[in-house]
C-alpha cells in the first residue's frame, strides 16, 4: 500500500512538474509575444508619427510672404518680345484672368496683351475669381511654341 502511495505521489509530482514546465513555457511565450508587440508598436509609432504630424498640418499650403511694398512687375508684351529667352524665367505680372480654357488653364491680360497661364495644382483660393478681379501672378514664363506662364501663386489685389 505504501508503495502504491509512493508511486501515486511520484506520478502526481511528475504531473505537477510537467504542468509547471508547461506553465513556464506558456509564460515565456507570453513574454516573447509582449516584447514583440511592444517592439512592433514602438517601430510603428516611430514610422507613423512624422507622417501623421505632417498630414495633420497644412503643409500643402505654403506660407507666402505678405509684402506690401513695391514689386517688380513685367508686362506680358516685354516677355513675348524677349526673343533671346530660351529658358524659363521667374516673373510677376498683374492683370485679370479673362476666361478659362481648360481646368487649370486661363487667358490672362495685363490690360494690353494676352497670354495663356497655367495654375499649379496646389493653388487654393478662398474667394471666387471673375474677369473683374485684379490679380498678381507669380510664376515662370516659358517661351515655347505656345508662350505661357506657369503660375505658382496668386495674390488678389
Automatic annotation (TrEMBL):
UniProt feature coiled coil, ranges: none
Database matches in InterPro entries: BOBF_sf (IPR036700), CarO-like (IPR005220)
A Pfam short name: BOF
Transmembrane residue ranges: 32-55
Keywords (A to Z) from UniProt: Membrane, Signal, Transmembrane, Transmembrane helix
NCBIfam families to which the protein is assigned, alphabetical: stress_OB_fold (NF033674)
Protein name in the entry: Uncharacterized protein
Organism (species): Vibrio fluvialis PG41
